[in-house]
Design brief:
CATH topology: Cytidine Deaminase, domain 2
Order of helices and strands: EHEEHHEHEEEEE
Largest sheet: 7 strands, mixed
Oligomer: single chain
Structural class: alpha/beta
Radius of gyration: 15 Å
Number of helices: 4
Shape: globular
Strand order of the largest sheet: 7-6-5-4-2-3-9
Number of strands: 9
Number of domains: 1
CATH superfamily: Cytidine Deaminase, domain 2
CATH class: Alpha Beta
């Protein structure tokens, strides 16, 4: 189960609505204590990639996302608010589709690159209204993604 601070959830929901009809993307850092979690918005460069090479990148930002180079550098080499912070999760939206972990999501998940394994949040946005959110995490024993329950936590945590 993930206990998601209300402020972090709201930051992700606002991001998803602002980016609609494109997919938003970002990540969460913090410790094992959800009160420490911070959401970081990332820039989805999928439309740029698609415009440059539609054969290599057949999907545009309505159905795919790619973090910018700057966001990837911040993700892997950036400073965090505390030396104990780490990447705890990733999030993205599905405009005009349900919140599910697609084959594309599975393919691009950073399995085995970040330890402990982060969770993945998928936010459904239909007509600029958040319809729901689901969470998934890699299960090493079963070698597949499993759904996690998401519970709303306190008001601590802040978005950036």
């Amino acid at each position: 189960m993930i206990v998601l601070p209300v402020a972090v959830r709201e930051e992700m929901f606002v991001h998803a609505v602002e980016e609609y009809p494109s997919e938003c993307c970002g990540y969460l850092t913090g410790t094992d204590d959800p009160a420490s979690w911070v959401a970081y918005r990332c820039r989805n460069i999928q439309n740029e990639l698609h415009a440059r090479d539609p054969h290599q990148y057949p999907r545009d930002a309505r159905t795919a996302y790619t973090f910018s180079k700057e966001d990837m550098e911040r993700l892997f080499f950036g400073e965090t608010s505390s030396p104990d912070d780490r990447v705890v999760g990733f999030y993205h939206s599905h405009p005009d589709h349900p919140a599910y972990f697609s084959d594309e999501d599975r393919t691009h998940a950073l399995v085995d690159l970040i330890r402990p394994e982060p969770f993945y949040l998928v936010i459904s946005v239909i007509n600029r209204v958040v319809q729901g959110m689901r969470a998934f995490v890699w299960d090493e024993q079963q070698q597949q993604f499993q759904e996690l329950e998401v519970q709303n936590g306190g008001k601590t945590g802040s978005g950036q």
